């Protein structure tokens, strides 16, 4: 690389790093404004709501307490780490820290008023935290979505150098490119000594070896270095690399060889300087728990009632388009390999199944699942309802009957299951889902191996919180129409 190229990279890296560092500042400003609104609404509510006992001196005490409450709550957010750079944009730590700071603030205010015998209005106290906590969480959610959209458009990004063996580097880089909302731009790679490479098989430039960590990171002005599997042959080499970047504005991320295990199943317990990782058993049984079934029944029944006008309008459109049947019924494989009739709005011509055989013969496919970007069998109404996933809505009836779940792996076809390996068969340990990790992560844009990996991750790491998160992400996935064809 030329001197001019190094200079340009360093200038671009400085701008990139500076813009990313503005995120915690913007979050703090938004938090203060949100808390100010919550305190103001609590003050107004205490005065206006008639079920609180009126008192002549309440206004004075509330006015005195409002300022310290606002500042103390904001200070508590700072104290618990709610403005650390690595919590924004992904994960649940951000929301956990906001809840933690809010609970601590409420507790300290209550204890402080008790010890000092300050007559703070209980109505004001209750309203402040009842309004403030949901407002804070809503603001942080909106802020996160804006960060993710900004990153997708190439802003607020951080430069990344990946260290490891070439295959793991390419796999990790592919994920970072696909999930652009994470905000990482891959600048180059570091390989183990003895590999004279100019670039990895996927075309990522090799900046050097893992023995030159600091020089390579500073050369491209990276913000983050990711140590993937195979980066070092011993723990001493990793420790030495961490010593090298000490004192520099570079964050380190380690991707362990232990993958596809959720953090809820991991417990780190240091013993004699060794970070022993205890892994809980897979949660396949819990994924079929009665609580999930109750949630499915209530959710599917409520959803069908709520969207009944949409269901009726879609049925009328399909019927009047070509006079064919409204619903398409297809045999799918459910939990424990049991077949069931899966319902969808018909989005293809009436002889679609016969035409599929010809299409499979004339088009190469490298996976179990057959999908085409421009499928000639799709009708005019079908293009819209497939893009918005409206064609899947009749499967709410399958959910209500217990054949499917609101969230789970994609329901496979019998001929797909016939080609399953032993690992793939674990997908059949739970009910298939109306939506799932496959849908919110790219749907048909994903390779077959990625689809299987996501489904197995769901089966092994099920939790109700994850189900709720997937349902929330489904809305944005449907609206963006990513991978829908």
UniProtKB/TrEMBL annotation:
<keyword id="KW-0808">Transferase</keyword>
<feature type="transmembrane region" description="Helical">
    <location>
        <begin position="297"/>
        <end position="318"/>
    </location>
</feature>
<comment type="similarity">
    <text>Belongs to the bacterial sugar transferase family.</text>
</comment>
<dbReference type="Pfam" id="PF13727">
    <property type="entry name" value="CoA_binding_3"/>
</dbReference>
<keyword id="KW-1133">Transmembrane helix</keyword>
<feature type="transmembrane region" description="Helical">
    <location>
        <begin position="21"/>
        <end position="44"/>
    </location>
</feature>
<feature type="transmembrane region" description="Helical">
    <location>
        <begin position="64"/>
        <end position="85"/>
    </location>
</feature>
<dbReference type="InterPro" id="IPR017475">
    <property type="entry name" value="EPS_sugar_tfrase"/>
</dbReference>
<feature type="transmembrane region" description="Helical">
    <location>
        <begin position="124"/>
        <end position="143"/>
    </location>
</feature>
<dbReference type="GO" id="GO:0016780">
    <property type="term" value="F:phosphotransferase activity, for other substituted phosphate groups"/>
</dbReference>
<keyword id="KW-0812">Transmembrane</keyword>
<protein>
    <submittedName>
        <fullName>Sugar transferase</fullName>
    </submittedName>
</protein>
<feature type="domain" description="Bacterial sugar transferase">
    <location>
        <begin position="292"/>
        <end position="479"/>
    </location>
</feature>
<feature type="transmembrane region" description="Helical">
    <location>
        <begin position="97"/>
        <end position="118"/>
    </location>
</feature>
<dbReference type="InterPro" id="IPR003362">
    <property type="entry name" value="Bact_transf"/>
</dbReference>
<keyword id="KW-0472">Membrane</keyword>
<dbReference type="GO" id="GO:0016020">
    <property type="term" value="C:membrane"/>
</dbReference>
<dbReference type="Pfam" id="PF02397">
    <property type="entry name" value="Bac_transf"/>
</dbReference>
């Amino acid at each position: 690389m030329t001197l001019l190229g190094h200079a340009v990279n360093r200038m671009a890296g400085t701008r990139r790093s500076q813009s990313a560092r503005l995120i915690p500042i913007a979050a703090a400003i938004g938090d203060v404004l949100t808390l100010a609104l919550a305190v103001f609404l609590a003050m107004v509510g205490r005065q206006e709501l008639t079920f609180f006992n009126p008192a002549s001196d309440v206004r004075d005490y509330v006015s005195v307490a409002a300022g310290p409450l606002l500042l103390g709550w904001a200070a508590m957010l700072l104290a618990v780490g709610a403005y650390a750079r690595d919590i924004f944009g992904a994960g649940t730590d951000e929301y956990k820290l906001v809840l933690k700071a809010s609970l601590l603030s409420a507790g300290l205010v209550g204890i402080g008023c008790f010890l000092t015998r300050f007559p703070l209005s209980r109505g004001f106290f209750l309203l402040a935290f009842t309004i403030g906590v949901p407002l804070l969480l809503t603001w942080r959610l909106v802020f996160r979505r804006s960060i993710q959209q900004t990153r997708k458009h190439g802003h607020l990004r951080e430069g990344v150098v990946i260290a490891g063996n070439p295959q793991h580097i390419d796999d990790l880089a592919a994920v970072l490119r696909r999930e652009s909302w994470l905000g990482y731009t891959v600048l180059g790679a570091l390989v183990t000594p003895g590999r004279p490479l100019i670039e990895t098989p996927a075309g990522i430039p090799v900046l050097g070896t893992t023995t030159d960590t600091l020089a390579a990171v500073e050369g491209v002005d990276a913000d983050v270095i990711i140590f993937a599997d195979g980066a070092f042959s011993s723990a001493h080499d990793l420790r030495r690399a961490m010593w090298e970047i000490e004192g520099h504005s570079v964050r380190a991320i380690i991707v362990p060889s232990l993958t596809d295990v959720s953090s809820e199943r991991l417990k780190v317990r240091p013993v004699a300087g060794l970070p022993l990782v205890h892994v809980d058993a897979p949660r396949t049984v819990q994924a079929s728990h009665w609580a999930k079934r109750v949630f499915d029944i209530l959710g599917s029944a409520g959803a069908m009632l709520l969207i009944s006008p949409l269901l009726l309008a879609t049925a009328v459109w399909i019927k009047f388009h070509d006079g064919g049947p409204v619903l398409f019924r297809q045999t799918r494989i459910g939990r424990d390999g049991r077949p069931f009739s899966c319902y969808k709005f018909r989005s293809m011509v009436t002889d679609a199944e016969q035409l599929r055989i010809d299409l499979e013969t004339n088009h190469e496919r490298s996976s179990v699942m057959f999908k085409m970007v421009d499928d000639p069998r799709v009708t005019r109404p079908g293009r819209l309802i497939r893009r918005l996933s409206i064609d899947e809505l009749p499967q709410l009836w399958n959910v209500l009957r217990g054949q499917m779940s609101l969230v789970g792996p994609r329901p496979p076809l019998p001929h797909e299951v016939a080609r399953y390996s032993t690992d793939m068969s674990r997908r059949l340990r739970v009910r298939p889902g109306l939506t799932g990790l496959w849908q919110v992560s790219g749907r048909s844009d994903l390779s077959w191996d990625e689809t299987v990996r996501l489904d197995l991750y769901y089966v092994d790491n099920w939790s109700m919180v994850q189900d709720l998160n997937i349902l929330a992400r489904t809305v944005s996935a449907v609206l963006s129409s990513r991978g829908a064809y």
